[in-house]
Design a protein that fits this description.
Elements: H1 2-24, E1 26-32, E2 37-41, E3 46-48, E4 51-55, E5 59-64, E6 78-79, E7 85-87, H2 97-100, E8 101-110, E9 113-116, E10 120-125, E11 133-134, E12 137-140, E13 145-147, E14 149-150, E15 159-166, E16 170-172, E17 182-184, E18 190-192, H3 197-200, E19 204-210, E20 216-218, E21 225-228, E22 234-241, E23 244-248, E24 257-262, E25 270-273, E26 276-279, E27 298-310, E28 313-316, E29 322-331, E30 335-340, E31 343-344, E32 351-355, E33 358-361, E34 370-377, E35 382-391, E36 413-416, E37 421-423, E38 434-439, E39 442-443, E40 450-452, E41 458-460, H4 465-468, E42 470-477, E43 483-493, E44 497-498, E45 506-510, E46 515-523, E47 529-534, E48 537-538, E49 545-549, E50 553-558, E51 567-574, E52 579-596, E53 601-604, E54 609-611, E55 614-618, E56 622-628, E57 636-638, E58 645-647, E59 653-655, E60 664-671, E61 678-687, E62 706-715, E63 725-730, E64 746-755, E65 766-769, E66 780-788, E67 791-797, E68 810-817, E69 825-830, E70 838-842, E71 850-859, E72 862-866, E73 870-873, E74 884-890, E75 894-900, E76 911-918, ...
Parallel strand pairs: 2-10, 12-21, 23-27, 28-35, 36-43, 45-52, 53-61
Antiparallel strand pairs: 1-4, 3-7, 5-8, 6-7, 8-9, 8-10, 11-14, 13-18, 15-16, 15-19, 17-18, 19-20, 22-24, 25-26, 27-29, 29-33, 30-31, 30-34, 32-33, 34-35, 37-41, 38-39, 38-42, 40-41, 42-43, 44-46, 46-50, 47-48, 47-51, 49-50, 51-52, 52-55, 54-59, 56-57, 56-60, 58-59, 60-61, 62-63, 62-64, 64-65, ...
């Protein structure tokens, strides 16, 4: 009774401890979360830490932009054991955009839930040399000058201004509060207020710092402020402003506004509010440092984002309501999204977003348990908050059916393929010595995916349907050798996987076209249900947009795409296992449409003229202005920007100080490459006032009338000797127009005046850089190649260097059906400065159709001339799509497969090719007829894993291969024979019965045998392979009464099995003459007596023993003559007993069933364990009607225990008193 009470107490404590551990479980939370943005140079590398807390401690991982695990790439990227993602320094040629310029997220998960970090933008930068430059600025005395530190575009994003040096002495930094003279902006510009002649004598240099490497570079040349004299009154003109200024909340910000005018302009600031414009009042926080011209600047004030989900912890009972509030601080906030256990949260009738910040869950279910996260993002920052929902359990009710029962029945379990499964062995009783697991009679673990804890938990990592589905048995053993077992069936369900090949990240369609998004599940147990979301909310089909369901696919089809269809579309595929989803961005291209259509305009000579022109569309249309070269509209030339002419970002064209030459026809064109460009011609009329006054300062003429002036100019790289051009103007002219200059070229200019006395000295040199013009030449070497029945590949080279007129920003590729009246459709391709050859694919074309293709280059000034058109023809059809391959059955030497052709593929197929191989072999191929859809692959290896895939071909080539499938032929590695039937013992040899081994379904090819004495290290091998058809073999020349180990290795196509057998040879005196020796032993008897060691040694030893015995008997007889009679009786009895004992041992040695009643063997190679049936010394329960497995109480066995691991052993019992007999106990080892 006391023992039973103790077991009840142990059972109660175990149950209560499990309840406590469950309540103590908590989901992961980040202790160190990666930043929103990380940038590093290739010379330094980067280490990004990510740590999380939780109970149990969470596992850490990283994923990339596509959601795949960021696997280790030697020398490029790896993850340390503490969760740190490491990017080691790399060479320039090792740069990979998919690794060094992408998004990453850190993942943490444990049994309570999973969380994911905010997006981390990683950018690795290849270090490049750079040289900052400072150029001169021309400014009227008393106005404001702006000097810029010019940086190459390829480093501009990573290099910031460190300081300005004035005459190598005064150092100004952007952190300095501006004084009355100088202001340094955070963007690097140096503003010089109230310029006078002394400013023109100073030299200015800038020093730039690479913020990733810390490298400081000083500009090699100096910039100067060229101070000019005002000659006449001039209205204000804004020369420098910033359309957008960003500043952190609480920081100091400067908003520049610089203009030029004569006299010097006055400034007035206004702030736009919801009620209108109000003057900016100076106070201790706001100060106006320096119209009537107006410019607008948007001030964006940012504050770090912080997200908190309230409440952070909730424990709810099933059926209650959960509410989570996402509190976001900081600004701006562009998007707010929710996730559960790392997955995007899909709203439904029960899980709803009442607003962007409130998540409401009605009638909580058990699957709602887990980690919930709210994410907030803007362009420069991101943050997330985490909350955990726990489900409260009903208090347990203990049901004691038997004091020694296990405390929980096994049930059929479901596991999800690719995930982790943990099995518990609910065993009761005390004490428990060991818990083992079997699957299909094979002892686990089988491979690295199986983990068994000391407490008996079996963990299956990366569950696979083919390998892991089946019955699992838990066996518990106590120190007395008693066992209890229970079984459960694990059913592996395969989660749906959406085919990313048909579900791209981005789908682009023009307005009015047809489009479709295909959501196809390549794997997953049926039935699979599909659901669509748009921007995170359930999407319902309309008359124009339909959802079509096929067998394993769902197609979202747009009959006529509209701009309102733009957004993110998510397909959610659900089956009994789980749900998975993928999201695609639908981009709708919209041709341009007027928002401010240009109209005819009039302006007074000398005033300003505004011509508005703006359009909307997607992509945003570019606005280009042109002016008719003649008095009538016809030949238009590009309008280039100058100090007097400026085109704003909104498309408006502004002319200051209008001249009579500005009068004429202007063309505004809006184009975004979608459809036909939008354009309109307007007329600018310049009106002249009836009278006006104009004064000018006449330069000193040397007291002699100036008869003429010579304007000399050359390119900056040329010398004044031999490369100078000049323009002669009359003495009455003070202006000159230089023509036939090259665009984007720096010129040096000087003027020489002439009167009756002679020529003056040259004036100071003026540096002038001409503006950018549209390319004057077309791209070169245009070619077109068909790549399919609906696509063409277009390749070309940039225009000649002298015809580019600035950096080429991209190309417009136009195409249309040959000889059709349709307008060209254009595709815009960005220029790649690192490559001389450019290419793109034109898709969505008609099969076997001729297309006319042109290309033209464009820069910031507009597009250049187009190439001559070239003709390309699409293919009649394309190589077929390979079908989906399935394995429908296997035998030990054949594999049955079938396949199904893609119903959407209308291409003809001439043949299929099956590609297959087994592990560690080369790929083999088999040609199959196109008229069949199934095949049996024969003569394959037994019990072997095979990989195979299928390709389809026609006259145009071979399509992409189908996804590979893996299968295994039936059969297993050999199964060892039980020791009691495998080994027959003798004193100097043993007989091994090879026919006791089982094939496992695959024929055994041969055996290898090795043996050694128990305490020796070196094995002795039987020289030859033993064929599988030999029933038995002999291991001879053994020492009597000594322990040996024989290791037998059996080979088959399915694998190799090793088993060890331990035994002790019989003592020599126990060998019976009646023992029937095998043929090999009989051969030894036929040897001559003096060469037969087996006979010679026993004879010699026996002779010596006989002599000693006789001598001892004689001595005893002489000393004890009075006891001779009693001694004779005693000797006769002893001899009779010895003879009887030897006879018994000889008989038992040759009886396998009597000599060994129980055995245990194992294969170390395959981890197999087999148990022989026990005949005595152990009781096992056979009542299968009871739902619990019970270890029975029994008296302890008297046999010796030995921990021999998993090797097959024969256990020897201690010697019995009064006898030399060796007996073998039955039972499990």
């Amino acid at each position: 009774m006391a023992g039973e009470l103790w077991m009840v107490v142990a059972l109660l404590s175990t149950v209560l401890s499990n309840i406590y551990c469950g309540d103590d479980e908590s989901g992961p939370r980040f202790r160190t979360e990666p930043p929103f943005r990380i940038e590093f140079s290739n010379s330094s590398g980067a280490e990004i830490r990510c740590t999380a807390d939780g109970i149990p401690p969470p596992r850490m991982n990283w994923q990339n932009r596509e959601g795949a695990n960021a696997r280790d790439i030697p020398g490029i990227r790896y993850m340390r054991s503490d969760g740190t993602l490491v990017f080691p320094p790399f060479a320039r040629e090792d740069y990979r955009q998919d690794v060094h310029d992408t998004l990453y997220q850190c993942l943490a998960s444990n049994s309570a839930g999973a969380i994911i970090s905010k997006e981390m933008h990683v950018r690795g930068v290849v270090q490049q040399k750079f040289i900052p430059q400072v150029y001169d600025d021309y400014v009227i005395r008393g106005n404001t000058a702006v000097l810029r530190c010019h940086l190459p575009s390829f480093v501009r994003e990573y290099v910031t201004l460190d300081s300005w040096l004035i005459d190598e002495d005064l150092v100004l930094k952007s952190t300095d509060i501006e004084d009355d003279k100088y202001t340094v902006l955070s963007t690097g510009e140096l503003i010089i207020h109230r310029v006078d002649d002394s400013d023109g004598k100073r030299n200015f240099k800038c020093r730039a710092r690479h913020r990733l490497t810390g490298e400081l570079v000083l500009s090699p040349t100096t910039g100067k402020v060229i101070v000019t004299e005002p000659h006449s009154p001039m209205g204000p003109r804004i020369t420098f402003s910033q359309s957008q200024v960003r500043a952190d909340e609480g920081s100091y910000v400067r908003i520049p506004c610089v203009s030029t005018a004569q006299p010097a302009p006055e400034y007035r600031w206004l702030k736009e509010t919801s009620s209108g414009l109000f003057p900016v009042i100076e106070d201790h926080r706001t100060r106006v440092t320096s119209g009537d011209k107006r410019t607008d600047t948007v001030l964006i004030v940012t504050a770090p984002l912080k997200v908190t989900v309230i409440p952070e912890h909730q424990t709810l009972n099933i059926g209650e309501t959960a509410v989570l509030n996402c509190s976001v601080s900081g600004h701006p906030v562009h998007t707010v999204t929710w996730r559960k256990d790392q997955r995007h949260l899909a709203a439904n009738s029960r899980v709803q977003l009442l607003s962007r910040d409130v998540l409401h869950i009605t009638s909580v279910r058990r699957e709602d348990k887990g980690m919930y996260q709210c994410f907030a993002y803007n362009d420069a920052d991101g943050a997330q908050g985490t909350a955990e929902i726990k489900i409260g359990d009903v208090p347990p009710v203990l049901l004691i059916t038997h004091f020694l029962d296990t405390y929980g029945p096994f049930q059929t379990l479901s596991a999800i393929s690719g995930q982790e499964l943990v099995l518990n062995c609910p065993v009761g009783g005390y004490p428990i010595k060991s818990i083992t697991w079997q699957k299909g009679g094979i002892i686990l673990p089988l491979d690295h995916r199986h983990k068994i804890s000391s407490t008996g938990y079996l963990t299956l990592q990366d569950v696979q349907k083919a390998a892991d589905e089946g019955e699992y048995t838990c066996i518990a053993k106590n120190p007395d050798g008693l066992t209890a077992s229970g079984s459960t069936y694990v059913s592996v369900v395969v989660a749906p996987v959406i085919d990313a090949q048909y579900f791209p990240d981005t789908i682009t369609a023009n307005e009015g076209e047809r489009a479709k998004i295909i959501c196809s599940a390549t794997t997953g147990d049926p039935p699979i249900r599909f659901k669509w979301l748009k921007n995170g909310f359930p999407f319902v089909s309309t008359g124009r947009v339909s959802i079509n369901l096929l067998d394993d696919s769902s197609v979202l089809q747009f009959r006529k795409v509209q701009a309102t269809d733009r957004g993110q579309y998510t397909c959610v595929a659900t089956n009994a296992a789980t749900s998975t989803n993928m999201t695609s961005q639908l981009v709708v291209n919209v041709p341009p449409a007027w928002t401010a259509e240009p109209v005819n305009t009039s302006a007074i000579l000398g005033s300003s003229a505004w011509m508005n022109c703006s359009a909307e569309g997607f992509p945003t249309p570019s606005i280009i202005w042109r002016k008719a070269r003649e008095s009538s509209p016809g030949d238009f030339g590009y309008v280039t920007s100058s100090p007097r002419i400026r085109q704003y970002n909104n498309g408006s064209l502004v002319l200051w100080d209008v001249e009579l030459s500005d009068k004429g026809f202007y063309l505004c064109q809006a184009n975004n490459g979608i459809g036909a460009a939008l354009s309109k011609v307007i007329f600018l009329n310049v009106q002249v006032e009836t009278a006006y006054n104009k004064s000018a300062d006449v330069p000193f003429n040397g007291n002699s009338h100036i008869t003429g002036s010579s304007v000399q100019y050359k390119m900056a790289d040329d010398t004044w000797k031999g490369h100078t051009s000049q323009l002669i103007v009359s003495g009455s002219d003070s202006t000159a127009i230089l023509r036939a200059l090259h665009p984007v070229t720096t010129y040096h200019l000087r003027v020489i005046a002439e009167n009756a006395i002679g020529k003056s000295r040259p004036s100071g040199i003026i540096n002038v850089t001409t503006q950018v013009e549209a390319p004057s030449g077309p791209p070169r070497e245009l070619t077109v190649h068909p790549t399919g029945d609906q696509s063409l590949k277009v390749t070309w080279k940039p225009p000649r260097e002298d015809a580019r007129h600035g950096r080429i920003q991209g190309y417009h590729v136009g195409y249309r059906v040959y000889h059709s009246s349709e307008k060209f459709q254009y595709k815009t391709v960005e220029a790649n400065e690192d490559s001389e050859l450019h290419s793109t694919y034109v898709t969505g074309l008609q099969p076997f159709t001729k297309y006319e293709v042109i290309v033209k280059a464009y820069n910031v000034a507009g597009a250049g001339p187009q190439t001559d058109s070239i003709i390309g023809t699409t293919l009649e059809t394309a190589p077929p799509t390979s079908p989906i391959l399935q394995v429908i059955g296997t035998t030990s030497n054949s594999i049955n497969i079938r396949w199904e052709k893609d119903s959407k593929d209308r291409s003809s197929i001439t043949e299929y090719t099956l590609h297959y191989r087994h592990d560690d072999s080369m790929w083999q191929t088999k040609k199959l007829r196109s008229t069949t859809d199934r095949y049996t692959l024969e003569n394959v290896k037994c019990g072997t894993r095979y990989q195979m895939y299928l390709t389809a071909s026609n006259s145009l080539g071979t399509g992409e291969p189908s996804p590979s499938v893996t299968t295994r032929t039936k059969g297993a590695a050999p199964m060892p024979a039980p020791q009691n039937s495998f080994v027959t013992l003798n004193s100097t040899f043993v007989v091994l019965h090879l026919d006791g081994w089982q094939s496992g379904g695959c024929p055994i090819l041969h055996f290898n045998i090795q043996y050694k004495a128990k305490y020796q290290n070196q094995w002795t091998s039987v020289p030859d392979r033993i064929p599988a058809n030999r029933e038995k073999t002999i291991v001879g020349q053994l020492t009597p009464d000594r322990e040996y180990i024989v290791m037998v290795t059996a080979h088959s196509e399915a694998g190799v099995t090793q088993a060890e057998y331990k035994f002790r040879t019989l003592p020599l005196q126990y060998s019976s003459e009646s023992t029937s020796l095998p043929a090999l032993v009989r051969r030894e008897a036929e040897l001559p007596f003096h060469r037969n060691v087996t006979l010679l040694i026993p004879v010699v030893v026996s002779s010596l023993v006989l002599i000693i015995v006789i001598f001892t008997v004689v001595v005893c007889l002489r000393k004890h003559t009075q006891d001779r009679r009693g001694q004779q009786e005693y000797d006769s009895q002893k001899i009779a007993a010895d003879s009887l004992l030897m006879s018994e041992v000889s008989q038992k040695s040759l009886s396998g069933k009597q000599s060994i009643n129980g055995s245990h063997y194992s294969s170390p190679t395959r981890g197999q364990h087999q148990f022989a049936s026990s005949k005595s010394g152990e009781q096992r329960r056979t009542d299968k009607q009871h739902e619990y497995a019970e270890p029975y109480t029994a008296y302890p066995s008297s046999r010796q225990r030995s921990d021999e691991g998993s090797f097959a052993t024969i256990k020897r019992a201690p010697p019995r008193s009064g006898s030399m007999t060796s007996a073998y106990k039955t039972g499990f080892s």
